[in-house]
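Backbone-to-sequence.
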């Protein structure tokens, strides 16, 4: 089964079974909605425990979650440093607007110039507030490519290929 990370459980919070989650998804309100089911993976464990979200609230830079039937710190402590994941079936394309993609669709794509020169592969995506910036690992160094219309000309997630316009000073 293919899994996609939506959050990392960094710690517990209080004694009533809350966990402190660092989100790794653009769709926090949808992913962490009360009633949603997530797969909780303990640290270094390959088999998930399915949990249902009972409550969600924001606290500083974290999301605090409780799971149904786990209202005590002793029942959630073993999830500390674990991951929250969803399956491919739980991903819904209707969350995306035109020219938006899931991170897993972009990461791993080969980036080439309009002239056909290979620049590298996308290894990470940075959120800057204004626009995403793709970290592209080239043969000798990393490049930072802003996801803006002037630069990114074509994205083919099926072929894992992105064509960009190389402006002066970009590389």
């Amino acid at each position: 089964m293919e899994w996609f990370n939506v959050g990392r459980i960094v710690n517990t919070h209080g004694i009533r079974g809350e966990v402190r989650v660092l989100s790794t998804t653009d769709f926090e309100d949808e992913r962490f909605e009360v009633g949603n089911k997530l797969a909780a993976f303990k640290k270094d464990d390959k088999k998930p425990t399915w949990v249902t979200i009972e409550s969600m609230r924001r606290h500083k830079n974290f999301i605090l979650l409780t799971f149904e039937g786990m209202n005590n710190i002793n029942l959630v402590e073993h999830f500390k440093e674990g991951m929250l994941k969803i399956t491919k079936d739980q991903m819904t394309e209707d969350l995306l607007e035109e020219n938006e993609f899931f991170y897993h669709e972009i990461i791993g794509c080969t980036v080439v110039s309009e002239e056909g020169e290979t620049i590298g592969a996308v290894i990470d995506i940075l959120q800057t507030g204004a626009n995403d910036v793709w970290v592209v690992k080239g043969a000798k160094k990393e490049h930072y490519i802003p996801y803006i219309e002037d630069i990114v000309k074509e994205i083919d997630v099926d072929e894992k290929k992105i064509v960009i316009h190389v402006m002066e000073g970009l590389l």
